[in-house]
Write a structure and sequence with these properties.
It is a single chain. The chain has helices at residues 55-62, 85-94, 112-122, 131-141, 158-170, 188-205, 216-222, 240-245, 250-258, 323-332; strands at residues 7-20, 25-39, 44-48, 70-75, 78-79, 95-98, 176-180, 208-213, 225-230, 233-239, 308-311, 314-316. The chain is of the alpha/beta class and 333 residues long.
Length: 333
Amino acid sequence: MSEPAILKVSQLRKAFDSRSGFLGRKAKLHALDGISFEVQAGEAYGLVGESGCGKSTAGRALLRLIEPDSGEVEFKGQSVISASKRRLRELRRHIQMIFQDPYASLNPKQLVGDLLAEPLKVHRIVSDAEIPERVASLLTSVGLPIEAATKFPHEFSGGQRQRIGIARALALEPEFIVADEAVSALDVSIQAQILLLLQKLQAERNLSFLFITHDLGVLRYFCQRGSVMYLGRLVESGPTRDMLDRPLHPYTQMLREASPSPDPKTARATVKVAGEVPSPLDPPKGCHFHPRCPKAMPHCREVYPEMREVEPGRHVACHLHDPSVMGEQMEGN
């Protein structure tokens, strides 16, 4: 029997009030439309998709940095959504976040040492006398010299600033980290260094990750399992290598074909993902992907497919994998 998931997300929804059209009529933007997934202890789970699909909203909703409209998030069996302010503060000791922009997420007016000491003081992790030693240990753990504590964030490169952000996330000794596009703002060579650092920290501290990315290469390298998002919904979930080597959903296939191959021996022509993502203010009826899908059927234009398990551990929301729909399609032909 498998162990309970460290994080369980069930039917999470979030809509934002917006305005659309020439007259600016009120509308709802459904950033999250009932997403569900689980992350196991010690696992790196990925959320991947194009910009605007809702993956960053998902990361923030898990920590209630954005309050979801409905659904449930459980951390080690305890509800994050219904937690009181006091209990939420305690939970956030165990769930930390690494942000995309390593400069915007750091207070430019604070010394690095003060940035790292602040959460230690707020949560009373160690005594005041022990704080300098803990700050030094955090800097060392992310590959920065102890002297970095006496400098300001602007005195560091982008990669070094991200290491500071990682050190701050580690300050409270969390068990779970949400990494929101944590390497996308960095040069490719620096990305590799940060990913190696995160892997090392994961192994040393038995960390679990929700890794949010638009890069399939990063997903393949860092995450054991994951989900593909499109317009606020999950369209495919499963082991990362299976999804990328044998995609079940046409959207996953399209993303894969638009991504450079990691293996020069199997290099393929990089193509642009076909069509534009529809507006989340006015998503298409039926399957939201059908206007861009080369395999769309009439049924796809009317009914949104349910997520179903089609192989052990692999789920997909696509009528192509629904025997009843495909049977009707064959009869119609």
